[in-house]
Design a protein that fits this description.
single chain, mainly beta, SH3 type barrels, 6-stranded antiparallel beta sheet, 6 strands, DUF1918 domain-containing protein
Length: 71
């Protein structure tokens, strides 16, 4: 499963899983800079697409993908 971490939006990577306060999870499919913000595209548990834009220093609850930890 993985440990839920609090991290800044600028630290997110494709494959990470966003975790909502109610326990929902959303897989990140794309991260891009948009002006000063970060645009994050994701898939919901039932396969629907979504996106949001956040300030780079905003705090996000997420689980890291295994590929991010590879040394």
């Amino acid at each position: 499963m993985g440990i839920v971490e609090l991290m800044q939006a600028r630290e997110l990577a494709v494959g990470d899983i966003l975790v909502s306060a109610t326990g929902g999870s959303y897989e990140i499919t794309k991260v891009a800079r948009v002006g000063r913000g970060i645009r994050v595209q994701y898939l919901t548990e039932d396969g629907r697409q979504g996106r949001f834009t956040a300030a780079p220093e905003s705090i996000i609850r997420a689980r890291r993908s295994h590929a991010t930890h590879a040394a």
